[in-house]
């Protein structure tokens, strides 16, 4: 496998699939063997690779792994076929449209010892990768709160899920990943204003396993496109803009005092602001490089299916909370030790 390079296939040639095709076609050590899309390649996005009608045709060509970028509702069906054929897979997020479907995929790939990951692209954003490293190094001290805002106009490519499963799953995954913690509770409210059967705005408040407070605001109803993550803690606040891949730190300049009357008050004060200079490689390319290396046994720096399952579980809890008007408690276990 390592001498001839990896043979890869792609399932789905839509708005995300076309980007996967572009990256796969130029990925070192990988040959894009074929693309599956029943609609064909009317836009010329397949990078010259043959376009097939079925996943079975792709499997018959002999591939080492496939990227699954078809509609969310088809992830389970396609993933199970690949697992049964012994083919590793990188599945676009969310890993499945139901918790049970995600669990079946986890079992199918894990029971066969196959490499499988979920395309939670924010894990490969330079700003968030730098933020995670700095949190792990203790540069913020104790973490108090994570706030995300992810809003913009409705993307017409989405037809099968609402804003929680499509957009909020980004924030759920990145929050657990950058902090290394798991969600223990969530309370949410949703609205639907665009005339579609699914929700198009959600506001959620949650708590992580170490007590960190979480706030998510996600919608498809704003003309302003925003991708904002802030992490506030003992030593200040990190702000990540994943549209520009910028990371900024605002330090807490509060100084200790020997003035007896003030010793009981522990506040914060505005301090230095630092915008970090960080390398800005394309997140999708980094994601593909790391998944390729995982298939080759060289790396484990991917979002696993089990982590993707946890994200789907939290998203389901968000929708349950919004429907019931109650706070939903989430179970924690050893299988979520890497966050989410």
TrEMBL record:
Pfam families on file: GFO_IDH_MocA, GFO_IDH_MocA_C3
Tree of life domain: Bacteria
MF GO annotations: nucleotide binding
Stretches assigned to the Gfo/Idh/MocA-like oxidoreductase N-terminal domain: 7-120
Boundaries of every GFO/IDH/MocA-like oxidoreductase domain copy: 129-238
This protein's name: Dehydrogenase
């Amino acid at each position: 496998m390592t001498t001839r390079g990896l043979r890869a296939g792609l399932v789905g040639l839509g708005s995300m699939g076309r980007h996967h095709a572009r990256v796969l076609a130029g990925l070192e050590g990988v040959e894009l063997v074929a693309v599956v899309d029943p609609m064909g390649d009317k836009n010329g996005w397949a990078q010259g690779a043959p376009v097939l009608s079925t996943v079975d045709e792709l499997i018959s060509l002999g591939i080492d792994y496939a990227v699954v970028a078809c509609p969310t509702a088809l992830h389970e069906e396609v993933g199970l076929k690949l697992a049964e054929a012994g083919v590793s897979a990188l599945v676009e997020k969310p890993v499945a449209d139901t918790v049970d479907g995600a669990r079946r995929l986890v079992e199918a790939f894990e029971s066969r010892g196959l490499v499988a990951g979920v395309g939670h692209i924010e894990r490969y954003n330079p700003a968030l990768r730098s933020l995670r490293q700095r949190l792990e190094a203790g540069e913020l001290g104790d973490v108090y709160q994570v706030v995300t805002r992810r809003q913009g106009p409705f993307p017409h490519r989405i037809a099968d899920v609402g804003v929680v499963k499509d957009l909020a799953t980004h924030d759920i995954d990145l929050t657990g990943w950058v902090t290394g913690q798991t969600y223990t509770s969530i309370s949410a409210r949703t609205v639907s204003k665009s005339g579609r059967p699914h929700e198009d705005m959600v506001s959620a408040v949650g708590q992580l396993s170490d007590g960190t407070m979480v706030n998510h605001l996600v919608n498809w109803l704003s003309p302003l496109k925003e991708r904002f993550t802030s992490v506030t803690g003992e030593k200040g606040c990190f702000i990540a803009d994943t549209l520009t891949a910028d990371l900024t730190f605002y330090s807490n300049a509060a100084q200790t005092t020997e003035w007896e009357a003030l010793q009981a008050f522990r506040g914060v004060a505005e301090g230095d602001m630092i915008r970090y200079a960080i390398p800005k490689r394309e997140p999708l390319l980094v994601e593909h490089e790391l998944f390729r290396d995982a298939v080759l046994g060289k790396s484990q720096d991917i979002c696993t299916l089990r982590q993707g399952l946890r994200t789907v579980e939290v998203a389901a809890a968000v929708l349950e909370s919004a429907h019931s008007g109650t706070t939903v408690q989430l179970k924690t276990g050893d299988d979520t030790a890497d966050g989410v």
